[in-house]
Amino acid sequence: AEEEYETDLPRIDLGIDGLDEMIQGGVPERSLMVTIGSAGTGKTTFALQFLHEALEQGERGIYITLEESRERVINSATEKGLNFDEYADNGQLAVVDLDPVEMANSLRSIRSELPRLIESFDATRLVLDSVSLLEMMYDDRARRRNEIYDFTNSLKNAGVTTMLTSEASDEHSYTSRHGIVEYLTDAVFVLQYVRPDDFRETRLAIEIQKIRDANHSRETKPYEITNEGISVYRQANIF
Amino acid sequence: AEEEYETDLPRIDLGIDGLDEMIQGGVPERSLMVTIGSAGTGKTTFALQFLHEALEQGERGIYITLEESRERVINSATEKGLNFDEYADNGQLAVVDLDPVEMANSLRSIRSELPRLIESFDATRLVLDSVSLLEMMYDDRARRRNEIYDFTNSLKNAGVTTMLTSEASDEHSYTSRHGIVEYLTDAVFVLQYVRPDDFRETRLAIEIQKIRDANHSRETKPYEITNEGISVYRQANIF
Amino acid sequence: AEEEYETDLPRIDLGIDGLDEMIQGGVPERSLMVTIGSAGTGKTTFALQFLHEALEQGERGIYITLEESRERVINSATEKGLNFDEYADNGQLAVVDLDPVEMANSLRSIRSELPRLIESFDATRLVLDSVSLLEMMYDDRARRRNEIYDFTNSLKNAGVTTMLTSEASDEHSYTSRHGIVEYLTDAVFVLQYVRPDDFRETRLAIEIQKIRDANHSRETKPYEITNEGISVYRQANIF
Amino acid sequence: AEEEYETDLPRIDLGIDGLDEMIQGGVPERSLMVTIGSAGTGKTTFALQFLHEALEQGERGIYITLEESRERVINSATEKGLNFDEYADNGQLAVVDLDPVEMANSLRSIRSELPRLIESFDATRLVLDSVSLLEMMYDDRARRRNEIYDFTNSLKNAGVTTMLTSEASDEHSYTSRHGIVEYLTDAVFVLQYVRPDDFRETRLAIEIQKIRDANHSRETKPYEITNEGISVYRQANIF
Amino acid sequence: AEEEYETDLPRIDLGIDGLDEMIQGGVPERSLMVTIGSAGTGKTTFALQFLHEALEQGERGIYITLEESRERVINSATEKGLNFDEYADNGQLAVVDLDPVEMANSLRSIRSELPRLIESFDATRLVLDSVSLLEMMYDDRARRRNEIYDFTNSLKNAGVTTMLTSEASDEHSYTSRHGIVEYLTDAVFVLQYVRPDDFRETRLAIEIQKIRDANHSRETKPYEITNEGISVYRQANIF
Amino acid sequence: AEEEYETDLPRIDLGIDGLDEMIQGGVPERSLMVTIGSAGTGKTTFALQFLHEALEQGERGIYITLEESRERVINSATEKGLNFDEYADNGQLAVVDLDPVEMANSLRSIRSELPRLIESFDATRLVLDSVSLLEMMYDDRARRRNEIYDFTNSLKNAGVTTMLTSEASDEHSYTSRHGIVEYLTDAVFVLQYVRPDDFRETRLAIEIQKIRDANHSRETKPYEITNEGISVYRQANIF
Ligand SMILES: Nc1ncnc2c1ncn2[C@@H]1O[C@H](COP(=O)(O)OP(=O)(O)O)[C@@H](O)[C@H]1O
Ligand SMILES: Nc1ncnc2c1ncn2[C@@H]1O[C@H](COP(=O)(O)OP(=O)(O)O)[C@@H](O)[C@H]1O
Ligand SMILES: Nc1ncnc2c1ncn2[C@@H]1O[C@H](COP(=O)(O)OP(=O)(O)O)[C@@H](O)[C@H]1O
Ligand SMILES: Nc1ncnc2c1ncn2[C@@H]1O[C@H](COP(=O)(O)OP(=O)(O)O)[C@@H](O)[C@H]1O
Ligand SMILES: Nc1ncnc2c1ncn2[C@@H]1O[C@H](COP(=O)(O)OP(=O)(O)O)[C@@H](O)[C@H]1O
Ligand SMILES: Nc1ncnc2c1ncn2[C@@H]1O[C@H](COP(=O)(O)OP(=O)(O)O)[C@@H](O)[C@H]1O
Ligand SMILES: [Mg+2]
Ligand SMILES: [Mg+2]
Ligand SMILES: [Mg+2]
Ligand SMILES: [Mg+2]
Ligand SMILES: [Mg+2]
Ligand SMILES: [Mg+2]
To answer: Which of E101, E171, E203 is opposite residue C146, by nearest beta carbon?
Structure first.
């Protein structure tokens, strides 16, 4: 019996001003993506806006945070005009704060329950902020890889578009802290600080490192974080 | 039932001349912050001034030191005109010197008692100088991360604004010695030496690396340490 | 008794536009090859085109993926006009998605079965995407080397031309992640990002690092990934 | 009852020509200091002169060496005109050569006896040359930190002004070999080689990296070692 | 009784065009040598030519390969016009392919049998391609050193001139992968890639790093690999 | 009773042409010295000449080699005109080749016997070529330090002037392979390759890094190895 292959995956927008225009045709639905950056580059803001894009269109989303409290996440997003308070109230949005130690310990059961949770909640987008905190909980490297491999795999099969955030490696802006997720994901966005030699002002720069099966700009563009979130300046240059 | 989210967190000043002007609107109250720098960059002085800002306004503060004796801390601060002797006498200020080995060994109980201590003392600000000495006590990396994660979490929930100090990594001025706290904190200040190629005079430079939910300058500015403490020169440049 | 040595190995094309012209006389049949590159440099696309070259000529091929699902691989290739859906349907192509953890655990039996599988399927080309995910599963370095040595050896003896893909080391574009496969293979292709100092546009560059017993260009040439796959621009230069 | 805090610590000179003028007001008495440098930069000479400064004023001092024999230390100092032979004879000076292995093994008892020894000898200054040899004896990093922390702490409480010498890290001139002592001490002096690009003559350069509670120059200045010891050239520049 | 010392060791040629002229007087017979280079720099070709030089003069040689099959080695050499097929047939040449895992496991017995084997075969030259694959089999570093020390020692005593090949370290072209053989051998040849900044064409360069008791050029010279093997261009320069 | 201190240590020459003039007044007799350099920089030649200097004056010397055979050492030296064959015959010279594994295993007894051996042989100079091979035999770092510390200490007390040779670290020319001996010795000589950017000719350069209690040049000077040994060109410059 001949199988059916859908050669034209539906595409979605990320909801980041300026960045969506750098991706021709959008990101394939149900992709597993990661945003890599060091502390303060805007990963959380990026993920909030990604979720907001779906909420705004009446879809439902799940935000899992290992770093901040549920309240803090909702407040932050609401301050940035993303109305997470309303979405949380009207049931479109689930914000879950997990303790990374506990998450690591019960990852197997989380992995098996997550697909059901996502389905029953009818979520189209999911955020995990940050996968590095989860990875850090495993000191044994092979164990860490296995767990992260299995976990990202279950996310790929869960029928949801997912954005992970990851700390950057100390040495290389384009490498995640543990050097695994960029290989397991379908798309990689890199946020970085660019510090000029004259020690004046630190700039923020974004590059799309990869999107499987999509054509995208390979330019590095400046962006800013304001109280309306992240805006990428497509017409400007870093220097 | 609808929940209430406070979208306008009260903001506070750090009490560092010139630096407070680099933060539009101040730092959110109850933030957990860290100052990263190598030996002699002024972390302790920074933390003393941060606490003094509150004491001066009649609030109460706790200074936990793992590096120096209680007497030395009070003397140093008093010499810098911060009157810690008076504040310690009039009961606004508690200076506690802990042995890092003992602190590490009893971190669980410290963690559970700290909130009560903070509440009963009615402290609005707390300093831990330095978190690196605590981190160093754990050789097992996963253990260290778990302990520091839990500890910083309990500080976030203790209803107090906290300043940690942290040694910098040998390799990267913008990375803490153990590479964890900058991700667990709400704000990161980086103090660093800038050594010109001609081997003349070493300069001191400060950058605000991140403040969650706040707009701040991204400039790197020179500062000096005098017998009145740290002053940041907003109008000057490093080179 | 005198033995016979075939001094003129049959040569094949890789199926990558522009690259085949950089290899005088083609790659020796039954070579074991590797393509090294960091995330998004086009390793998977490279491997798909390599397999397609044989399928197009009526030969049979096996694609083993440790990274993506069988469906995703077929869709990706089909979107790029490589008709993997048809080849899978007409039985010329076998796409197998394996879990790297399981593959690592049962590598011994896989190793012993693979030659029979290849023979019975009558495959002339095989892809393993990626060998790094397999290597990662071993934390003990000597164990990893032994396993990979034995595995690549059985591939060399299986009578098939094989393309492995490998992640690049973080430090050195020309080194594979675990630094072994480039020594065990007969040919090494290096895909890399070239990021100019002005932080403008990231370029893609390819170099043939080695082909045992073949004469090849030592130039580094730009390439692009389009929806028709990888094209190497032999006439152009990176800068 | 109100406590008394001495806000004006008595200050002392180091006894290094040119360097004392770089410290406004002198180093606080009873400080724990460290001189960091690689092999041959003059750490031992520095420490000998530091001790001589007190001996000359009729005070008493203790020199603990882990590197050389008692005889060699006295000879070296005497050759440099520091008259250690006479001071050793007249009882002002105690030179003790310890085996670092034994010192490490009995550090607990040494730690408890040292304060009494210092007091009974009535020493005002103490040298340990070098703390790195002691640190090296511990392979377990957490153990090393605990031991060094406790040991430096007992020195701080022993009522003596102490100069440690430490090997520099291979990578960073400003970091001690094991990266601990610069954080546990009140003052850090960095001795380093400056090797010009033309491979001509290696220069010696000194920087005061930190002195808690003291104002000091941040310049890097050339120095020389002659048969009268170290002289810092305040008016000269490295290049 | 007075012992006899032969002060004029017989000297031999390596058989590499252009390189032999860079060594005044040739390499001392019975030397243990190593050729260091990364994948594809021509180490195997170098070793084949070294052996061929002796075969051509009617001497006998042994080629031990840990990387390729016996057939592949003979084919490669024969394709390059080195007639290994004939030499293997007429009994002048023994090509042995060993599994590095097994070689490592039975190194002790190999070590004790090798001298007899060499003597009974009457070989004057021996190749081991590559020693890195053998070294890799030991994860315990002290064990590795001991084994390699003993093994190279038995080669020195076996009355044969030996060429080892070794992978280069990732970091330093002039260092072997495990950093031992260059110290245990009498001569070191370094093959390296030189990649110009403009990302155009990668060049091949050779340097004689050491030959005990021989005068040699210290120039770095370009070389090429053609279907006649390696030729060093003594008159040319890399840039 | 007053002790006697000899403030004017007798001084000796090293026997290296050009280098002795860089040391004002010579090296103190009975010093423990080390020559650091990578493979082929001339450490062995340096040590042979050092020993020859004493033999020539009718003194007696011991040469311990861990790298080469006794015969090879004598031949090499004799070829360089150092007449080791005669000195070995007339009993002025003892050349001992030791297996580093065995030396490491019986270091304790060697340590206790060495002083007697030196005394009974009446040697004034001793060479150990190389201490790195001995250090390598210990994988446990603390153990290695203890052993090397005790061993070098026993050499210092044996009443002999000693020259150790040591491999250089891969990263830093001025650091020994294991980073210990340069701190335990009284004098450090650094031999290094200087490779110009144009990849032409590699030069040899020497620097005196330290000589305790001696005034010496801090220049880096070119040297050459000829069949008469090492000559340092005091009047020339590297570039
Ligand atoms: N249709 C397309 N048009 C243009 N570029 C594409 C297209 N499909 C994929 N790419 C590019 O190819 C990259 C991924 O290629 P892939 O072979 O999956 O890389 P790798 O296996 O090395 O991670 C994407 O990041 C994207 O830049
Ligand atoms: N209202 C705002 N106006 C301007 N900048 C802001 C605002 N809120 C946050 N930022 C900036 O965003 C940064 C934090 O963004 P965040 O998404 O939390 O980063 P990350 O998750 O990568 O640590 C802050 O350091 C600050 O520079
Ligand atoms: N016939 C040939 N013509 C030109 N170059 C060749 C030929 N055969 C091999 N080479 C070159 O030699 C390289 C491999 O040489 P080899 O000795 O196997 O290197 P190594 O052992 O260092 O990996 C190939 O990558 C190719 O560049
Ligand atoms: N009264 C003062 N005048 C000028 N500089 C001072 C004074 N007191 C301290 N400093 C400077 O401050 C530095 C130490 O500051 P500190 O806050 O203790 O740094 P850290 O905690 O980062 O080690 C000293 O090294 C010195 O340079
Ligand atoms: N007769 C000679 N003429 C010129 N150079 C020589 C002669 N003998 C040895 N050399 C040089 O000396 C080097 C080896 O010196 P050696 O002292 O053995 O170095 P090391 O012990 O540091 O490895 C050789 O690599 C060679 O360059
Ligand atoms: N009399 C002297 N004249 C000139 N320089 C000397 C004299 N004595 C020692 N030196 C220099 O001092 C260096 C050693 O100083 P030392 O204090 O022992 O250094 P460290 O303890 O850092 O190894 C020697 O390498 C030498 O350069
Ligand atoms: Mg965040
Ligand atoms: Mg401090
Ligand atoms: Mg891929
Ligand atoms: Mg010293
Ligand atoms: Mg080879
Ligand atoms: Mg040698």
So the answer is: E101
Residues of chain C with Cβ-Cβ distance to E195 below 8 Å are 220
ipTM exceeding cut-off 0.85 for this assembly: yes
Q: Under DSSP, is residue F61 helix (H, G, I), strand (E, B) or coil? A: strand
DSSP H or E stretch at residue B103: helix B100-105
Which residues line ligand 3 at a C-beta cut-off of 6 Å? C 210-216; E 37, 39-45, 225-227
State the nearest Cα–Cα gap between B64 and chain A, in angstroms: 24
- B209 Cα to the center of ligand 2, angstroms: 10
* Contact status, residue F3 vs residue D89, Cβ threshold 8 Å: yes
DSSP code at position C73: H
Q: What is the chain E residue with the closest CA to F102? A: E146
How close is the nearest chain E Cα to the Cα of F154, in Å?
25
User: Any idea what the CATH number is for the domain that residue D94 is in?
Assistant: 3.40.50.300
Query: How many Cβ atoms sit within 10 Å of the Cβ of residue F58?
Result: 8
Q: Is the peptide bond before F130 cis (omega within 30 degrees of 0)?
A: yes
Containing structural domain, residue E81: 28-191
Using CB atoms, which residue from A85, A139, A199 is nearest to B142?
A139
> In chain D, how many domains are there?
1
- Other C-beta atoms lying within 10 Å of the C-beta of residue B178: 20
- C-alpha D196/C-alpha D201 separation (Å) is 7
The pLDDT tens digits for D48-66 are: 999 999 999 999 999 999 9
Q: Establish, for the pair of chains B and D, how many residue pairs have beta carbons separated by less than 8 Å.
A: 89
* Residue to substitute from E157, E183, E185, E191, interface F, most F β-carbons within 10 A: E183
Amino acid at site E114: L
**Position C1 confidence tier, pLDDT thresholds 50, 70, 90:** very low
> Any residues with CB less than 8 A from the CB of D14 and at least 6 apart, and which?
D20, D23, D27, D49, D50, D53
* Assigned domain for E222 exists: no
Kindly state the percentage of chain C with pLDDT values over 90: 79
> Distance, CA B217 to ligand 2 centroid (Å)?
12
- Return the half-sphere exposure (C-beta side, CA atoms, 13 A cut-off) of residue C52: 24
D200 → closest Cβ in F5, F8, F237: F237
Interface test with E, best of C11, C169, C183 (most E CBs within 10 A): C183
**A211 in contact with ligand 1, CB cutoff 6 A:** yes
Q: Which atom of ligand 2 is nearest to the CA of A40?
A: 23
Residue E179 identity (one-letter amino acid): G
Distance in angstroms between the alpha carbons of the first and the last residue of chain F = 57
In ligand 2, the atom with minimum distance to the C-alpha of A129 is 21
Residue E102 lies in a domain: yes
Beta strand extents in chain B (DSSP E only): 11-12, 23-24, 27-28, 32-37, 60-65, 93-97, 123-129, 161-167, 187-194, 203-211, 215-216, 220-226, 229-232
- Cα angle B222-B224-B228, degrees, rounded to a multiple of 5: 145
| C79 located within any domain | yes
Give the ligand whose atoms come closest to the C-alpha of residue B37: 4
Q: For residue B4, tell me if it sits in a domain.
A: no
**Residues comprising chain D, all counted:** 239
Say what the pLDDT of residue D24 is. Answer: 87
How confident is the model over B169-196, as pLDDT tens digits? 998 999 999 999 999 999 999 999 999 9
Whole-angstrom Cα distance, residue C82 to residue C75? Answer: 10
